[in-house]
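Attaching the record inline, Q. Sequence:
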Amino acid sequence: MTRRVLVAILLVAALAVTGFGVPLGAVINRLYERDAILRLEREATAATIEVPASSLGAGGDLPELPKERNGTRFSLYLPTGQRLAGLGPIQSAGVAKAGLSGVVVDGRNGSRMFVAVPVTSREKVIAVVWADRSMAPVRSRTREAWAAMVGLAFVVLLLSTLFAFALVRRLVRPVRELGVAAARLGDGDFATRAGRSGIGEVDRVAEALDSTAERLGAVLERERAFSADASHQLRTPLTALRVHLAAASETADEETNASIDLALEDVGRLGQTVDDMLRLARDAVVVGDLDLRAVLSDLERAWHGRLAAAGRALVISAPLVPPALRASKAALGQVLDVLLSNAEIHGRDTVTVTVREIAAGVAIEVSDEGPGITGDAEAIFTRRGADASGYGIGLALARSLTEAEGGRLLLRTDAPTTTFAILFPISDP
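Structure, as predicted:
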């Protein structure tokens, strides 16, 4: 932005200087030429006084013209254009024109300017006085004027540059402060407030940003309070359910005890899910180097028996030394739970969890031997309404949790089976 504003201001200043200076330079050149012509005409007119009519008669001596001074030469011509005296051209159309019309004629003859002034006697042109001078002094004077104008133009551009820098600093500083405030707001600091600059348009944006921060802070606080209340309300019936199941197992037969044990595992998983979601909602999760093997071990304990009861296998493949990740264990655990739950409900046969390194990152893939998902691969991640059924609700949550940890969750459409991939950058050592 700084560069664009500076370039725009300087471009406008340069166009203004050019648009004013070029015509002015042409006018000055023309003005100096006309001034030189007028002075030359005055000198030639003064010389006509020294040309009496009697001296041009038969047998008369030619008048003595003024000698060359200040570079001006004088010549005398008959009205027909024939030179009688001086160093002017032998024949001149300008002289003939002045002799025939009786008016002063001026113009250029090569690198010299000239003036032809008719000499009259009894309302008749009897001779023409020619005065010429080199154009060099006029051109030198013009160049000096142009040099002064160029210097003035540079001064104007320099002042414009200084003004542009001052203006840009005044405009850019509050915009940068708005960017910093917006970044803090994006990082979750809803108490941040944008400063005021005195620029109406920027201040209105700052006011809108402050209002947005207040509304987002209020909404987040209500959601956190609701999460805490919901968690508290869920813990009590879950604890009671666990107690009742444990009491029932004491009097149940062996087959019923097996079902009760599975139910107790589900209750434990549900309680852990509630705790994890509450910590995520409160931003109470500490993100650090993740022990990926521990996550996979917990995943196997939670899902091996559950899938085996349905006649399905769980295979986990990971390097002996998994790559280091910086992510929340609770968040990644919830994402994997969603993907395995999706494979359990909608997939077939063996469920495989594979960890492999990719370019500058790591991929955690969850696949089953189902036929795959047809249609728009992104549609399954669209959050649906509360009354929606089928996949899509949990997957939307899984994607949001993954992106909050700096990763990506996508469906691999190039795989022959249903394969979801979680992509994370490798943390710096």
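The radius of gyration is 49 Å. The helical segments are 2-48, 93-101, 136-186, 200-249, 254-281, 292-309, 329-346, 393-404.

More tomorrow.
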